[in-house]
Design a protein that fits this description.
two-stranded antiparallel ribbon; four-stranded mixed beta sheet; 5 helices; single chain; globular
Length: 133
């Protein structure tokens, strides 16, 4: 009986896994690049949910050899304002991870995933958000 009680006390003293939204696997969320401004931080579960929603979507913007240009940023910004969740296709990028992060940063969006050469970006509508995370 005492061993059960001591086991319970040990478990209750440890924080439950996934309860602290600020840290994940020992890293701060801002270090992972998931922080947009002050108000939008997404956990891994939220990003996974958004990737699931994006599965059926077709890419709305394609980034060619010119890379992340002003025109691409403008097109992605308009698409994010309209749809909130979009896919962007990268055509043979030299560094797809850096390009995806730069695109998310310049559009003030959250990088939800990079699958192959497909980037999934999310930014809630400023007035009427349709996707609840």
């Amino acid at each position: 009986m005492e061993s059960l009680e001591s086991g319970e006390s040990q478990m209750s003293s440890r924080p439950m896994r996934g309860t602290d939204s600020e840290t994940r696997r020992g890293r701060n969320m801002s270090e992972q690049g998931d922080e947009i401004g002050v108000e939008l931080r997404l956990t891994g579960k939220q990003r996974r949910y958004l990737r699931g929603l994006a599965h059926k979507l077709a890419p709305v913007v394609m980034v060619g050899h010119a890379g992340v240009s002003a025109e691409v940023v403008r097109a992605v910004d308009e698409a994010l304002t309209t749809h909130e969740l979009i896919k962007v296709r990268l055509l043979r990028p030299p560094d797809k991870h850096a390009m995806a992060e730069e695109l998310a940063r310049r559009c003030s969006a959250v990088l939800c995933g990079l699958i192959g050469h497909m980037v999934i970006l999310y930014r809630p509508h400023p007035e009427n958000p349709r996707i609840r995370v």
